[in-house]
């Protein structure tokens, strides 16, 4: 358990390195709770299709990694995908070494505002692996994003026309995840059924801007 904790802390530290040229956003998905297992882990989100004006012309739909070319002085729409891997203790069984793993792929859409806020969501699929075998479930999520450095420190908030690595590298996100319910035995022989529920999840993200 100590070795696992050390690896987790190392991975979390790597995600908090200062922004550098890249085309993705790393995030740490913190404590996603079911009625049974509690999961957390790292992932990446890539944005690539934008609906906005750009500083150099008036085109509205274009390809731009992380939408760095979107006009930040107006609202813009971003479309992309998340890939993440979660793990946690399987506390539905008596075996303290049981675990649950989950791998997800989630297409996402966000409406972004100049002041550093965004609202959005996604619909995808998540694959679980546990003592009860492997199975897939739909992944339905909605969230609010906040880039606090933009809101609190950016002197040009509401007027910038492109992304800024100085102010946009940190993102906090509160998501609501819909779980459609799990049959008895899904997480191991004799484990109870879990009813459908909506659970909050906190994300800590690092934007790696070009």
Reading side by side through the largest sheet, how are the strands ordered? 1-2-4-5-6-7-8-9
CATH level 3 topology: Porin
Structural class of the helices, strands and pairings? mainly beta
Distance between the termini: 37 Å
Mean pLDDT: 86
User: What fraction strand?
Assistant: over 45%
The general outline is elongated
Helical coverage, percent range: 10-25%
In angstroms, what is the radius of gyration?
19 Å
Could you say what the CATH architecture is?
Beta Barrel
Biggest sheet architecture: 8 strands, antiparallel, barrel
Number of domains: 1
Count every helix, treating DSSP H or I runs of 4 or more residues as helices: 3
Poorly predicted tracts of residues: 1-23
Number of strands: 9
CATH class: Mainly Beta
How would you sum up this structure, described in words?
This protein has about 210 residues and is mainly beta. It has one domain: Beta Barrel (Porin). The chain is built from 3 helices and 9 strands, in the order αβββββββααββ. An 8-stranded antiparallel barrel has the order 1-2-4-5-6-7-8-9. Strand 1 and strand 2 form a beta hairpin. The longest helix is centred in the N-terminal third of the chain and has 14 residues, at about 1-15. It is elongated and about 60 Å long.
């Amino acid at each position: 358990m100590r070795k696992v904790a050390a690896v987790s802390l190392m991975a979390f530290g790597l995600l908090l390195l200062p922004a550098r040229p890249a085309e993705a956003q790393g995030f740490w998905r913190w404590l996603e709770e079911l009625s049974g297992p509690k999961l957390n882990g790292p992932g990446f989100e890539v944005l690539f299709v934008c609906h906005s004006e750009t500083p150099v012309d008036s085109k509205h739909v274009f390809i731009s990694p992380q939408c760095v070319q979107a006009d930040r002085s107006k609202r813009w729409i971003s479309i992309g995908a998340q890939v993440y891997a979660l793990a946690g203790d399987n506390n539905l069984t008596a075996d303290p070494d049981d675990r649950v793993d989950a791998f997800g792929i989630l297409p996402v859409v966000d409406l972004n505002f100049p002041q550093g806020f965004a609202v959005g969501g996604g619909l995808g699929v998540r694959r679980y692996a546990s003592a009860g075998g492997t199975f897939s479930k739909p992944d339905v999520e909605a969230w609010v994003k906040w880039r606090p450095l933009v809101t609190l420190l950016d002197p040009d908030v509401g007027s910038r026309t492109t992304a800024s690595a100085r102010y946009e590298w940190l993102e906090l996100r509160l998501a609501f995840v819909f779980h459609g319910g799990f049959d008895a035995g899904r997480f191991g022989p004799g484990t109870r059924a879990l009813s459908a529920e909506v659970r909050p999840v906190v994300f800590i993200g690092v934007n790696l801007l070009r």
